[in-house]
Amino acid sequence: MQKILFISKGPHSPSTRYRATDFFPLLKAAGWQPTHLTDRRSLPARLNILRAGADADAVVVVRRTYGRLFARLLRQASRQLIFTFDDAIFAKSDGSRSAGRERRFAATLPLCDQVWAGNSYLAEKARPFNGAVEVIPTALDADRYNVRAEKPASSLDLVWIGSSSTKRHLVTMLPALEAAAGSLPSLRLKIIADFSLASDKLKILPVQWSPETEARELASAHIGIAPLPDNAFTRGKCGLKVLQYMASGLPVISSPTGVNKDMVAHGVNGFLAAGDRDWIEAIQRLAQDRDLRLSMGEAGRRRCLDHFTLQAAFQKMLASLERGPRRP
To answer: Is domain 2-139+309-323 given the CATH code 3.40.50.2000 in the classification?
Structure first.
């Protein structure tokens, strides 16, 4: 078996799961021996990475960018060096520029044989530094989300899944959700995350995220929501929330930002909502029409199965690996 080493910030990071470890069973079946190492940005960790990299047939760096010295050392140690990313890691999370992040991005990418970008926006940002950029979208195992769960009859549950790192995106939408609750007293907001919110106008149902329960918690909701501002950082988002909602058979209401506007076909598998009024109208329309919720949920799941499965993304990954080193 050929050896492939993935390097990331840690095994529990979402990007590690969706860009690396979820593919391990498929890699093994295709004749690769995958392993993962955490880059703790310490000297012992870096030395371990260089040793393991020299022993691997391919090294895949997941979102980590480096200064010139370590980037060159990793290049020299690796037979085939690949960079994969699913966020605008060259910018700050508020969308503003970061000279340090841009510098590390520019130091790392030219030394790689290939770059796997999570969407076309990220690919566009990578191409000035590397001519071998492939779009491999974030994907998921749709079967894992094919869960039957009873939906509450006494409430209409919006669901948002995420973490405290993107909490502010949900907070900015809270006034619109509270306004919608004014005409829909049964409306609830289920938050599957590591935090909760407080509101005296909208019922909040906090659910601690866990890999064992997330599919069931999503399936038991009625509508998935994905509010997202538009800036240089959020355009790099790869639509994971939307994918999870679609795989769960939920209609989606999303901001028309980045790939979300491509995943959500307005009026088919959900609604694109640009402002508070759009959000309120979309919630009200779905609240009043159970059949529309069902048809949109079914359309979303079909779209996920047709375009965003783990198997489809893996075929792109495998073809890229089999092309072998392509020196910059």
So the answer is: yes
What are the start-end ranges of the H helices in the chain? Answer: 14-19, 24-29, 43-55, 68-77, 99-108, 120-126, 167-183, 214-219, 240-247, 260-263, 276-288, 290-307, 310-323
The token pair that represents 51 in the structure block: 């040793």
Please give the average per-residue pLDDT across 119-125, as a whole number: 97
What whole-number distance in Å separates Cα of residue 249 and Cα of residue 230?
A: 26
Q: What is the CA 183 to chain-centroid distance, rounded?
A: 33
Residue with tokens 């601690």: 208
- CA–CA distance from 307 to each of 8, 46, 263, 296, 303 (Å)? 26, 37, 9, 16, 6
What torsion do the CA atoms of 284, 285, 291, 293 make, to the nearest 10 degrees? -70
Question: Residue 161 is encoded by which pair of tokens?
Answer: 């899944």
Dist CA 179 CA 177 (whole Å): 5
State which H helix or E strand residue 299 sits in. helix 290-307
- Break the chain into its structural domains and give their ranges: 2-139+309-323, 143-307
CATH 3.40.50.2000 for the 143-307 domain, yes or no:
yes
SS3 labels along 259-292: CHHHHCCECCCEEECCCHHHHHHHHHHHHHCHHH
- pTM value is 0.93
Equal fold, 2-139+309-323 vs 143-307 = yes
% the chain with pLDDT above 90? 96
Taking the C-alpha atoms of residue 235 and residue 233, their distance in angstroms, rounded to an integer, is 5
Q: Quote the CA–CA distance of 321 and 168 in Å, as a whole number.
A: 38
Which tokens in the block code for residue 120? Answer: 């076309």
Range 131-141 average pLDDT? 95
Element of type H or E holding 17? helix 14-19
Whether residue 87 has pLDDT greater than 80: yes
Q: 215-262, pLDDT tens digit by residue?
A: 999 999 999 999 999 999 999 999 999 999 999 999 999 999 999 999
And the tokens for 181?
Answer: 């609750």
